[in-house]
Amino acid sequence: MKTLGKREANKLGRRQAIVEIAALSFMEHGYAGTSMSAIATELGGSKSTLWGYFPSKEDLFAAVMDDATAEFRAQLDDVLAHKGELADTVLAFCRKFITKVTSPDGCGLYRLVAAESGRFPEVGRIFSSRGREPVGRLLAHYFQSQIDAGTMRPSDPVRAAHMVLSLCLGDLHQRTLLLGFRASPQDIVAEAEAVTADFLRAYASSESAG
Q1: Which residues does UniProt assign to DNA binding (predicted)?
Q2: Model's pTM, two decimal places?
């Protein structure tokens, strides 16, 4: 059992090394410019070894996305699990989300997807299924709990989640993404407060708003 445990640990370590090398390659060279052969060479193994972990570049990109978003989703889940006021929870969620999407890594990932998804639709599908969709489900689940509790008006929680995420990807994110603007903590707070205010006007119940 001890030997098996060591073998499994080695496999996990090898897999993580592949994902980290691939992440750097995708960000530096793009999806089209990244090859399984180059990753295998940098890893110091054969392509057959690499394929044993990831049968295709699409599978490898999905693993990179999972690695890039898993911890962030867990952080957002913790924010939404906090038993606080609706306004405070939504504000905390927006601050964390906007901080992420305006960060250098967040903008780099958005640029990669925007540049490559036209030629490689799988890039956009993977980005959506590993990124925005799970976050949207987390937020919609929270909103449903608030509707049930009466702090939100009866409404479609999925639509409410889409609205909040779209607003979080608004002006500040676009300026950071397209114009190279460096968002300060104060900019992020102001944007999160504006999104939260718009959300509350649209969805908060009269009791919650009061």
Answers
A1: 35-54
A2: 0.86
